[in-house]
Design brief:
By secondary structure, the protein is of the alpha+beta class. Helix content is about 45%, strand content about 15%. It folds into two domains: about 110 residues, Alpha-Beta Plaits (2-Layer Sandwich); about 35 residues, no CATH class. The chain starts with a helix and ends with a helix.
Length: about 150
């Protein structure tokens, strides 16, 4: 039996990002397809979606990145939409991962790998940091998320 904390630390949150030019109808078809993998999902503005896949993994008998690959393949085959999928233990990291996919269109960020992934990202990649805040933080020499994380309060 797993400890409660170990369960939470799995990379089971998928952020599925459609191309910006995806039609509303195609996006709805992709989202409907996602609900076949997990009923725990949320449509997001700009043609994206979050899916909690923890319950789906044992059902489909695969890992998170294998499920992401299935989703990509089905979205392309059934709807004709190329999606990028970020997989992480939180929605924020999964969203940043989907914006920076590997060559296969998927970026898996395991919990132990989150610091290495986040540390090198530019400060504006952090959710909630806009251009004005990023400019201000840069005046203090904070160029990356890692530099911000290492700063004392």
């Amino acid at each position: 039996m797993r400890a409660h904390g170990a369960e939470r630390a799995q990379a089971t949150v998928l952020h599925v990002r459609c191309r910006p030019d995806t039609s509303e109808d195609a996006y709805r078809q992709v989202f409907d397809m996602l609900t076949g993998y997990s009923p725990v999902g949320q449509a997001l503005p700009s043609a994206a979606a979050l899916v909690e896949a923890r319950g789906a993994l044992p059902y489909f008998g695969c890992s998170s990145d294998q499920l992401a690959a299935r989703i990509r393949l089905r979205a392309m085959a059934l709807v004709g939409v190329d999606v990028h999928v970020g997989v992480a233990s939180s929605w924020a990291v999964a969203a940043m991962a989907s914006a920076r996919p590997a060559r296969n269109g998927i970026r898996l960020v395991v919990p132990d790998g989150e610091p290495a992934f986040l540390d090198q990202l530019p400060i504006e990649a952090l959710h909630g940091i806009g251009p004005v805040q990023a400019t201000r933080l840069r005046t203090f020499g904070l160029e990356t998320i890692g530099a911000l994380a290492a700063t004392r309060p």
